[in-house]
C-alpha cells in the first residue's frame, strides 16, 4: 500500500462543494482530511480567491495511479485547462504533493508528467499549512521539515493570507 498527500483547491463555482465532492471521491482511500483554508490566487492574481485543503490517502495506487485519480476528480468537477493561463482559475485542482512507497520511503521522480515531491510545494503556504493539519511532523524530501518551511521568507510572507475557514468542513459523511 502506498500513501500520498494530495492538495485540493477550487476557486470557481461552489468552491466548497467541489472540494467536498473530491473528498467523497477519495472516501475509499481517505485516511485524513485537513481543515479548509481561504487563500488568494497564486501565480495569476486576476481571479477569485481559492478554498484549499489537503488529503492523506492510502491505497494500492502507484504514483502514476494517484495522478490518474487526481485527474479523474478534476474531470468530474468539470475542470477545463486553459493553456494560456497555467495558474488560472479552476473548478478543482488536485495536485500530488508526496507519495510514499509500500516500504514507507518517499518516492522521488523527475518525470515531467509527475515530479515528486511536487516541485513548488516548498514555496506554497496554501499547500504546506493544510498539510500540517494531517501530518504535523511532515518532511518534504530535499527541503526538510514542513514546519521549518513555513518560516522561509516566501512562505512566511504568504502565511498571513491563508485564512482558516472553521465554518466549512470536509469530513466525509
Pairing-aware structural class of the strands and helices? alpha+beta
CATH architecture: 2-Layer Sandwich
* Arithmetic mean pLDDT: 95
Q: State the helicity in percent bands.
A: 25-40%
- Name of the CATH superfamily: 7,8-Dihydro-6-hydroxymethylpterin-pyrophosphokinase HPPK
The first-level CATH class name: Alpha Beta
State the major sheet.
6 strands, antiparallel
CATH topology: Alpha-Beta Plaits
- Quaternary class: single chain
How much of the polypeptide forms β-strand, as a percent range? 25-35%
Q: How many helices does DSSP assign? A: 5
Domains counted in the coordinates: how many? 1
Shape: globular
Number of strands: 10
Would you kindly provide a written description of the structure presented here, covering whatever features stand out?
By secondary structure, the chain is α+β, with helices and mostly antiparallel strands. The protein has a single domain (2-164), classed as 2-Layer Sandwich (Alpha-Beta Plaits). Helices cover 26% and strands 27% of the residues. It has helices at 15-25, 63-76, 125-134, 146-149, 153-158; strands at residues 2-10, 30-33, 37-39, 50-59, 93-100, 109-111, 114-116, 139-140, 144-145, 163-164. Strands 1, 2, 3, 4, 5 and 10 form a six-stranded antiparallel beta sheet that branches. It has a two-stranded antiparallel ribbon with strand order 6-7. Strands 8-9 form a two-stranded antiparallel sheet. Strand 6 (109-111) and strand 7 form a beta hairpin.
Amino acid at each position: 500500500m502506498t500513501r500520498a498527500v494530495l492538495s485540493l483547491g477550487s476557486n470557481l463555482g461552489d468552491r466548497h462543494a467541489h472540494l467536498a465532492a473530491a473528498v467523497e471521491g477519495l472516501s475509499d482511500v481517505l485516511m485524513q482530511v485537513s481543515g479548509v483554508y481561504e487563500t488568494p490566487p497564486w501565480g495569476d492574481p486576476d481571479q477569485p480567491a481559492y478554498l484549499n485543503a489537503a488529503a492523506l490517502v492510502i491505497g494500492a495506487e502507484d504514483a502514476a495511479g494517484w495522478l490518474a485519480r487526481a485527474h479523474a476528480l478534476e474531470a468530474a468537477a468539470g475542470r477545463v485547462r486553459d493553456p494560456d493561463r497555467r495558474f488560472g482559475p479552476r473548478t478543482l485542482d488536485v495536485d500530488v504533493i508526496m507519495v510514499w512507497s509500500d516500504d514507507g520511503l518517499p518516492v522521488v521522480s523527475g518525470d515531467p508528467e509527475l515530479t515528486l515531491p511536487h516541485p513548488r510545494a516548498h514555496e506554497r503556504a496554501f499547500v504546506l499549512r493544510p498539510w500540517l493539519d494531517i501530518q504535523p511532523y511532515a518532511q518534504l524530501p530535499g527541503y526538510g521539515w514542513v514546519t521549518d518551511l513555513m518560516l522561509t521568507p516566501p512562505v512566511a510572507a504568504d502565511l498571513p493570507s491563508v485564512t482558516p475557514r472553521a465554518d466549512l468542513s470536509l469530513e466525509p459523511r
